[in-house]
Amino acid sequence: RAKLESLRAATPIPINTAAAVEVARLEGELKAGINSGQMQLYVQPIVDMRSHQIIGFESLVRWMHPITGLVRPDFFIPLAERSGLIVPLGRWVLREACHAALRFDREQNHAKMAGKSGFISVNVSAGQFHDPEFIPELASILRETKLNPERLQLEITESILSDTSAAKRWIAGCKKLGVRIALDDFGTGYSSLSYLHEFDIDTLKIDQSFVRRILEDKRSEKIIITIIQLSQALGLEIVAEGIETQPMFDRLAALGCHYGQGYLIARPSPIDAYFAAR
Ligand code: C2E
Ligand code: CA
Ligand code: CA
Ligand code: CA
């Protein structure tokens, strides 16, 4: 019997070959897509909730597949993460986003923006965080584009911070270059409060799951109130994302939320959409 058990333990878990082949095929397509210009940078504005002026944009990548059409990041970002393709993809997004910020200046679009120049916020995945070339690449992209680093914000999630010492070094490296750090999907992770104490964060982005329920659910509203108070106490900027209706917007503004983002204000769109009308 013991022999049978050990034999069973040694038998590899059968791989679903069809699924593995499919994943490999998709990875190949994604790689080809990254290399052949199928990726597109979309941007979604972030506004000052009092003045309604655009203060910056979040960049959100899209994959224009030649046959399937537009593929959502929720599908291909995990694929990119698993395959390591997130590194070249993330690098492309970062460079593209910096160029987009400069284009907003060139086209004098900041007439619509508060202050002189808006910022661009870029999502950074765990795979990029662990890439030793990330910080040197970031430095060279900034050098190359001459974008004022204060106008670049990197969005990370709490999961990245669990490796405390690596995260501290990483954030310090980014800060040294002058870029800002936002904590995305705030409230969905585990030790949010200790993280805030420990890391040099500039902005909190309240997760959509709380924003979505703000009007119906007292608990979600209380969580948002607490996050806003916390951000005020710690001198952090705060962005509510996923604002879909006017009543949601009004409630968040009344609670003292600085900045907002969501379909009510604008859906993500190609950056050209911001220039096409003029
Ligand atoms: P995220 O960073 O939390 O981005 C916000 C998501 O919410 C975006 O989805 C955006 O289109 C969507 N959204 C904005 N306003 C509203 C609203 O009012 N209602 C609703 N229901 N949704 C709203 P998207 O563009 O599909 O991206 C999904 C996720 O994919 C992002 O979540 C982010 O985690 C990841 N992602 C997107 N672009 C990149 C990228 O360039 N790099 C990396 N690493 N991840 C990315
Ligand atoms: Ca984000
Ligand atoms: Ca988010
Ligand atoms: Ca998310």
TrEMBL record:
Residues 23-278 form the EAL domain. One of its GO terms (molecular function) is cyclic-guanylate-specific phosphodiesterase activity. It comes from the Bacteria. This is Diguanylate phosphodiesterase. The chain holds residues 109 to 386 of 386 of the full protein.
